[in-house]
């Protein structure tokens, strides 16, 4: 039971509250330190995410040969023949004369019943169209490419479900539909190529007039063309030669000429994007390690926030959060390593090459902290003259004796930094025991719990002492009153 000032008239609660403020100061310092550590951990993780994003972006562009082997193809008659580079490493030129385009095989049934509505197609059973089934029947349809579509027809099947089974069969190579105008079933091979659609003879095929004299079969054809003097064929109008996709569109009377060249614009665009992303990262990391630390602005406690306006809290915490990564050795070391990487020559098959040979150099102003500048004219010239050398500079694979191209070394450098930061600050979902800052925060939480227990015990002791004092004074007052009453009598 707490007695507050009944005998003394003192505001015991306020006195104890003021006394506890002094005892809480060490706890507030631990709490502030923990809050600052949390902000620091969040900033480390943010940096790590940004580094990871750029690492994968660089790997997926500058680390791939395809980025530097992009080609443009000039064609004398693009309406007849289309050509584009898909996975080409060399140049491609010559002529194509198209004698015949590839076509798809088709199969039409004899007339069944004209003008059936979609509802009738889905409701009319095959038995109503003359199909008599005493047991389930397997129907096999073979396309010109040898692919087989196999379905099972039951007595419950309608014309609609029969066609759906063909269209939706696993790896179906046939499309089929019912034409209400003619009353016929039409089948078409999904792929072009020489040959006919064949259907297993049986009750279903015969009754639906898909075989026999009433069925009409049209064979598919291969594409026939002359490529650089070689007369040849393909089952499709679209095919690949030496990493170039060729698309035959029309029969031609004269050869169509073509020639490829490096797609300088796209390669330049990729390199410029890499430099822009790199410069942005360099700027952000330098801002982090040079951000001022305002030691007079410590994290606010809940009690302090009660006496402040929202804008005041925002401005205060902006200062308090500043400088969490100031002079961080991991980030500073990363920046040094990257500056060195961007200046080192790379051994290629045609000799040592550096970014400087591509017109990419560090900005001379020391305030730019190692950002890169590009002379696009020099870059275009290097790409035009030797695109493979540009590829090797960025994406040459690493070996036991060679560290590889810039993008490969960039990935390794970033991997190392990711690992160091993760060991220090963890990642989202990390268990606190698995990284250094997590273990520190766990220790602080334990300190806070122990300190709060001690404060509670201290506060309880103060209350007991003040209560005892109040009770003693109250007894003394009672005794004094009794004596006065006795003397008064």
UniProtKB/TrEMBL annotation:
Domain of life: Bacteria
Subcellular location: Secreted; Bacterial flagellum
Flagellar hook-associated protein 2 C-terminal domain sequence ranges: 220-478
UniProt domain Flagellar hook-associated protein 2 N-terminal: residue ranges: 8-104
Alphabetically ordered keywords of this record: Bacterial flagellum, Cell projection, Cilium, Coiled coil, Flagellum, Secreted
Keyword Glycoprotein in annotation: no
InterPro entries to which the protein is assigned, alphabetical: FliD, FliD_C, FliD_N
Key word DNA-binding present: no
Pfam families from the UniProt entry: FliD_C, FliD_N
Family to which this protein belongs: Belongs to the FliD family.
Function recorded in the entry: Required for morphogenesis and for the elongation of the flagellar filament by facilitating polymerization of the flagellin monomers at the tip of growing filament. Forms a capping structure, which prevents flagellin subunits (transported through the central channel of the flagellum) from leaking out without polymerization at the distal end.
Protein name, UniProt field: Flagellar hook-associated protein 2
Organism of origin: Sporosarcina highlanderae
Phylogenetic classification of the source organism: Bacteria, Bacillati, Bacillota, Bacilli, Bacillales
